[in-house]
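[Q] Does anyone have a clean structure-token version of this?
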Amino acid sequence: DAAARTGIDLPTLLTIINERIEYLYDRDHQIGHAYFTGCDTRADVDEVMRHKVIPLLAEYFFEDWGKIAAVLGDLEMHDGPIEGGFLNRSVLKAPPGFDNGEAMPRFRWDVREDGFDYARLLGS
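[A] Here you go.
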């Protein structure tokens, strides 16, 4: 059983991710279970998420990191920094002459370097 080996409920993880992809994009771009078939440890799942799933989401959503964060459960509706389960968001400071007080905040998104927090995505 994958959950016993990895400590992550992979069927539920895929269901949640795919429901969000279907809502934000379409049903034809869902993530298949085959990405995770060789995963025996949590580190294996992290590797698949970091090097396969997240880059695929970046391609699907044309690097719209807000949508990628929504799929991964990391989107928070405020203008500040986020330390998410998969992604971190920092607020970019406007260069001199660009900050007129009316501009929308701009962000830098980064994939977490340390392990991922699956509980946040899984809602537990």
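[Q] Thanks! Anything notable?
[A] The chain is about 40% helix and 10% strand.
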